[in-house]
Structure prediction request, 381 residues.
Amino acid sequence: MSPARDGGQRPGAGDPAIEGLEVYIVGGAVRDALLGQPAGDRDWVVVGASPEIMAARGFTPVGGDFPVFLHPRTHEEYALARTERKSGRGYRGFVFQAGPDVTLEEDLRRRDLTVNAIARAPDGTLIDPLGGVADVRARVLRHVGPAFVEDPVRLLRLARFAARFHDFSIAPETLELCRALVRDGEVDALVPERVWQEFAKGLMADHPGRMPDVLAACGALERVAPGLVWNADVSAGLARGAARGLDLAQRYALLCRNSDPGLQERLRAPSACRDLARLLPGLLDRLAAAGAAEREASERPAVWLALLESCDALRRPDRFEALLAAADCVRGDLDPAAWMRRLAAVRTVDAGAVARAAGSDPVRIRDALRAARMQALQAVS
Prediction:
């Protein structure tokens, strides 16, 4: 019998939607509260109910493979307690069973990590059959059970949690199960969209480099991100980007800056991320050339203009500024403000006026516009 059924306080006072139901907060909200971190979205598990009961109380079903419902007023997610059984390859190869006879403990045992398998009853009592509280206190990420190897997404989630909770170690036996996922080919069943979902979350963590570190440690990195070059230099640039609070596209560009362009198709990143990843290597090369040209004052305007044009900076100044911030994490000696002043000078040139003065010859218009922009650049440092 679960703790709430054994004399625990019943939830739902003043809330007819859940009054009389046996509900628990589970997963991340409980873990983060134990860590003293701000509470995010709450996930609820309902024990002893059925889809019909939930519908009669005004809940809206949203789950596909298993019954998940939205609260009629708060719109928080309430899932019926469920078990799962492996039925095929990959993370979709599961059959779920949800019903009034599934206990809270059975539901917790199907989760990935012990720190995510803690429930809190309405009276504040913690239900922790798998030792998750002890692992939170010891700062250890540990798998719940041997079924960890049945779902390759758990490997990605482990790596992503390692990036978020950088002071947590990974239990050696858990890392060995990750290697088994790779050896058995389960990791090859991951689809690019699912890989990207986890990579995006990991990249926005405070220590994003731990995610590829963990994937590399178990042999999964080359399988989930083929063509990704991950080394100390790339790791250092990404760490600087995280420390400076760069956004997802900038961090992705830093991650991919030495990698095979084909990686973009494998990870299926959004277009903004792919744009920066495509442009950053070329910008770094041109910045190096521009640095060499600094010694020759006569060459500077031409080199600067070529660099601005190569990045389409005149039309996309915001993207150019984002690229500069990412590049500065690699070079360390870049002056982004100086480059933005150069761009501002070039953008003061009235292209329409120059074209009208040059006549109708396209070649003359091009040369006149270039000369005007070069003259504007000569006036800035």
Remarks:
- The first helix runs from residue 28 to 34.
- Residues 206 and 245 are 9 Å apart (CA to CA).
- The first strand starts at residue 22 and ends at 26.
- The chain has 18 helices and eleven strands.
